[in-house]
């Protein structure tokens, strides 16, 4: 159903953001510990990158129906 | 102005800043100074600008007051300036109207002349001629013009009078010729009265034709009488004058003769040396001749006086005739005048001749007197010397003595001496005498010349006047003749025109009569045809009606059979449609109905021949056949979830679909409150296409069972809301379609059933 699509997208968003944040955090910690002498900023940087990626992914996912494709053939996958 | 202000402020500020250093405090001071300085200069600038603007406006108003074109331009270009101008100057003057130079005078004159002519037209002809006559004696040039004008007016009258009384103009033209001569023979008071009538022309009405003719005849007669009387008068006067003048001339001639004879005789008597008795007879004869001469001279004088009186009388009569102003009498008047003139001339010449003769006679008589005087003197002397001797001394030569003879001779010698002396004296005084005589003669000659010149001048003048009159008379006759010919031509043209008009009229009338005949004939024909056609039509109608009824009966019987067949089929159809309807009702709350395939198949079988039902059966969407459709209730329930979601994504569309927009949209949905259900208007306007409004309209329509309207409203959603509601919309469409088709089918089945049940 089309009304359930948004919910699904948002779920995906959340999941994705959780993953990205986590990954960002992780990488940030790693880099902070390994390369940058336990400064805080790589963590923040990583978190930020993760958040940003999650944000962008979410946005793209939500925008996907509005993108104009070059090929006219539209394959709509329904669940 | 703003720039000036700014410049002023800037310059002031710069001055202040440049003047001071960097520190803040002085800057603050400076700032206050600049504000103060700039305030005063600004005030000045403001005042100056106000003055400039006021001056400009005032100048514009003044110039507009002076130049209306400028005012019009400004009013056109600046919107409310006309009101300002109206307040300040009053309304604008309208553009000056250029009056064309009106040619009043010639128009009026021509119109007056026209009026005069036109007003003269309805008058009787004698009045026209009367108007003609008073002008006849004036300068000859206007007279022919006016006669022509009158002729043209008359002609116009003739032409215009065609439609009224055609018979009148013809005699009128002929009468016109006779009218002028008699017209003028009325007496002077009549003429004066007619003249005043002429002046009051416009007031007089047209007289009837009969009266005109009578009056004309009357006037003709009167004029004729007058003419005859006048001519007789003239003749009488002429005759008497001629007689008297001839008498006078005869008397003058006789006097001349007598004078001549007397003079001759006197001379003879003077010069001849006849014997005494013959002398006495001669003297007696002379005396007789003298008395004769004096008598005849007296007679001649008296005759001349009488003749002059007669001539004056004749002149008076001629003047009287001239005053009467009759054209035909003019030649006789002219002849009389000529006669008069010739008589006067003759009389004058005769009188001058008599006068010369008389002067000659005077000379001769003077001479004779002188001679007589000398003789008497001599006789006296002789008597004084010889008193005895008688008169007849020629026969006494024998009686005379020597002494007497000597004394006679001495006396004679003395006399001769005396004579010689006198002669010498005379010779001396000759020149003086001659001069004085010449002078006298000159004076007398001058007097005589003057008299002769004046008489000759008089005669010449008279002659010229007579010639002039004659010429005038001739021209008048010529003009009259011409006018007569023109009138005759006009009359001929008029008769021709009449003929033509009558011909044309005849033709017109004939064609009219023919037309009328033809039209009535055609009418009758068409009437006859119509009647026959009607009969035919009615018969055909009856036949057709009978045939149609027969046909109808046959068809009714056939249709009965068909109708029963139809009824059976319809019943079957209806049953199958009912089955379909029943399947539609098997929808559970959130599940679709059973697939409609079976029922549709049954329908298709039941109505194999019915195309409409077949079409409808195939018109069902395949989804409903295979899967079934949702019920309204489930759709309604689903709608609320959709609504919630649609509200949440109301702001999202192609342009706005970032995550931030999503956040904003959610915020909007939380903060915005709309009615749960709102009745949709009959027409959707632009502001009704808002998502929230549409959703509330759709909710209302759903609550009231109008799925179709709800679907339509949901269809108006845009952007993400639309995408969210897409599935619901599709389901709603399916349901609606199926329902429509099924309702159509049931309606059709019902109709067919109704139709068939009506048959028996």
Automatic annotation (TrEMBL), chain A:
Topological relation to the membrane, as annotated: Single-pass membrane protein
Q: What is its main location?
A: mitochondrion
Which positions, given as ranges, span the membrane? 18-36
InterPro entries reported for this sequence:
Mic10 (IPR007512)
Q: Does the keyword Membrane apply?
A: yes
Report one GO cellular component.
MICOS complex
Q: Write out the annotated subcellular location.
A: Mitochondrion inner membrane
Q: Which Pfam families match?
A: DUF543
Could you name the domain of life of the organism this protein comes from?
A: Eukaryota
Q: Keywords on this record?
A: Membrane, Mitochondrion, Mitochondrion inner membrane, Transmembrane, Transmembrane helix
Query: Could you give the subunit structure recorded for this chain?
Result: Component of the mitochondrial contact site and cristae organizing system (MICOS) complex.
User: In which family does this protein belong, per the annotation?
Assistant: Belongs to the MICOS complex subunit Mic10 family.
Please give the function described in this protein's UniProt entry.
Answer: Component of the MICOS complex, a large protein complex of the mitochondrial inner membrane that plays crucial roles in the maintenance of crista junctions, inner membrane architecture, and formation of contact sites to the outer membrane.
Q: What name does UniProt use for this protein?
A: MICOS complex subunit MIC10
Q: Which organism is it from?
A: Oncorhynchus mykiss
Q: What is the lineage of its organism?
A: Eukaryota, Metazoa, Chordata, Craniata, Vertebrata
From TrEMBL, chain B:
**Where does this one sit in the cell?**
Mitochondrion inner membrane
Ubl conjugation is among the record's keywords: no
- Chain segments carrying region Disordered: 111-147
Q: Which domain of life is it from?
A: Eukaryota
Chief place where the protein resides: mitochondrion
List the GO cellular component terms. Answer: MICOS complex
Quote the biased-composition stretches of kind Basic and acidic residues, using this chain's numbering: 115-133
Annotated membrane topology is: Single-pass membrane protein
Query: For this chain's UniProt record, which GO biological process terms are given?
Result: cristae formation
Keywords of this entry: Coiled coil, Membrane, Mitochondrion, Mitochondrion inner membrane, Transmembrane, Transmembrane helix
Chain segments annotated as coiled-coil in the UniProt record: 402-429
Family according to the record: Belongs to the MICOS complex subunit Mic60 family.
Q: What does this protein do?
A: Component of the MICOS complex, a large protein complex of the mitochondrial inner membrane that plays crucial roles in the maintenance of crista junctions, inner membrane architecture, and formation of contact sites to the outer membrane.
Q: Which PANTHER family match?
A: MICOS COMPLEX SUBUNIT MIC60 (PTHR15415:SF7), MITOFILIN (PTHR15415)
Question: How does this chain assemble?
Answer: Component of the mitochondrial contact site and cristae organizing system (MICOS) complex.
* Record protein name field: MICOS complex subunit MIC60
Per the UniProt record, the source organism is Oncorhynchus mykiss (Rainbow trout)
Q: What gene makes this protein? A: immt
């Amino acid at each position: 159903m089309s009304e359930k699509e948004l919910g699904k997208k948002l779920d995906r968003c959340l999941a994705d953001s959780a993953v990205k944040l986590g990954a960002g955090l992780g990488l940030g910690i790693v880099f902070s510990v390994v390369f940058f002498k336990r400064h805080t900023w790589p963590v923040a940087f990583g978190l930020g990158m993760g958040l940003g990626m999650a944000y962008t992914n979410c946005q793209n996912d939500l925008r996907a129906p509005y993108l104009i494709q070059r090929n006219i053939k539209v394959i709509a996958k329904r669940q | 102005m703003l720039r000036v202000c700014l410049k002023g402020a800037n310059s002031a500020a710069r001055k202040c800043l440049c003047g001071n250093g960097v520190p803040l405090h002085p800057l603050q001071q400076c700032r206050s100074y600049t504000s103060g300085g700039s305030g005063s200069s600004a005030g000045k600038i403001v005042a100056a600008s106000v003055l400039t603007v006021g001056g400009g406006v005032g100048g514009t108003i003044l110039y507009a007051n002076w130049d209306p074109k400028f005012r019009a331009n400004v009013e056109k270009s600046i919107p409310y300036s006309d009101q300002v101008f109206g307040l300040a100057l009053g309304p604008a003057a309208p553009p000056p109207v250029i009056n064309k130079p009106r040619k009043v005078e010639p128009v009026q004159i021509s119109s007056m002349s026209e009026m005069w002519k036109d007003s003269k037209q309805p008058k009787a002809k004698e009045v026209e001629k009367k108007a003609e006559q008073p002008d006849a004696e004036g300068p000859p040039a206007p007279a022919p013009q006016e006669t022509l004008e009158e002729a043209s007016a008359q002609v116009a009258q003739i032409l215009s009078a065609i439609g009224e009384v055609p018979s009148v103009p013809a005699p009128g033209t002929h009468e016109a010729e006779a009218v002028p001569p008699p017209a003028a023979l009325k007496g002077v008071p009549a003429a004066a009265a007619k003249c005043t009538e002429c002046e009051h022309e416009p007031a007089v009405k047209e007289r009837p034709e009969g009266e005109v003719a009578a009056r004309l005849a009357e006037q003709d007669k009167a004029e004729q009488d007058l003419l005859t009387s006048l001519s007789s008068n003239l003749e009488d006067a002429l005759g008497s004058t001629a007689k008297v003048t001839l008498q006078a001339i005869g008397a003058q001639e006789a006097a001349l003769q007598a004078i001549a004879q007397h003079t001759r005789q006197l001379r003879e008597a003077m010069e001849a040396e006849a014997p005494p008795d013959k002398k006495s007879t001669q003297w007696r004869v002379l005396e007789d001749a003298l008395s004769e001469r004096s008598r005849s001279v007296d007679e001649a004088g008296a005759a001349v006086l009488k003749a002059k009186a007669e001539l004056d009388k004749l002149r008076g009569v001629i003047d009287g005739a001239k005053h009467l102003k009759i054209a035909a009498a003019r030649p006789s008047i002219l002849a009389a005048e000529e006669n008069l003139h010739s008589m006067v001339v003759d009389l004058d010449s005769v009188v001058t001749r008599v006068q010369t003769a008389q002067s000659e006679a005077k000379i001769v008589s003077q001479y004779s007197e002188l001679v007589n005087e000398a003789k008497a003197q001599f006789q006296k002397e002789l008597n004084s010397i010889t008193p005895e001797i008688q008169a007849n001394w020629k026969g006494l030569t024998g009686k005379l003595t020597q002494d007497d003879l000597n004394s006679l001779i001495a006396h004679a010698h003395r006399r001769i001496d005396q004579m010689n002396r006198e002669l010498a004296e005379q010779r001396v005084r000759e020149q003086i005498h001659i001069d004085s005589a010449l002078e006298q003669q000159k004076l007398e000659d001058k007097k005589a010349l003057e008299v002769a010149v004046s008489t000759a001048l008089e005669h010449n003048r008279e002659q010229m006047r007579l010639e002039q009159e004659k010429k005038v008379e001739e021209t008048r006759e010529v003009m009259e003749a011409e006018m007569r010919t023109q009138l005759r031509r006009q009359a001929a043209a008029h008769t021709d025109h009449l003929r033509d008009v009558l011909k044309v009229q005849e033709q017109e009338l004939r064609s009219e009569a023919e037309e009328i005949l033809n039209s009535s004939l055609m009418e009758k024909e068409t009437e006859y045809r119509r009647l026959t056609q009607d009969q035919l039509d009615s018969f055909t109608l009856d036949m057709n009606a009978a045939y149609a009824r027969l046909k109808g009966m046959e068809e009714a019987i056939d249709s009965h059979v068909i109708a029963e067949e139809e009824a059976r089929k319809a019943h079957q159809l209806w049953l199958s449609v009912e089955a379909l309807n029943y399947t539609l009702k098997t929808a559970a709350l959130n599940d679709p109905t059973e697939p409609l395939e079976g029922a549709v198949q049954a329908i298709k079988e039941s109505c194999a021949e019915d195309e409409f039902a077949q079409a409808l059966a195939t018109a069902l969407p395949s989804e409903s056949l295979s899967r079934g459709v949702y019920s309204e209730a489930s759709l309604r329930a689903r709608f609320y979830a959709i609504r919630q979601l649609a509200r949440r994504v109301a702001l999202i569309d192609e342009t706005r679909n970032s995550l931030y927009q999503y956040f904003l949209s959610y915020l909007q949905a939380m903060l915005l409150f709309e009615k749960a259900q709102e009745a949709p208007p009959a027409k959707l306007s632009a502001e009704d296409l808002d998502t929230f409004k549409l959703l509330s309209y759709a909710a209302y329509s759903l609550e009231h069972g109008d799925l179709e309207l709800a679907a339509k409203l949901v269809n108006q959603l845009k952007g993400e809301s639309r995408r969210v509601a897409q599935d619901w919309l599709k389901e709603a469409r399916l349901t609606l379609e199926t329902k429509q088709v099924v309702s159509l089918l049931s309606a059709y089945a019902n109709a067919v059933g109704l139709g068939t049940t009506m048959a028996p």
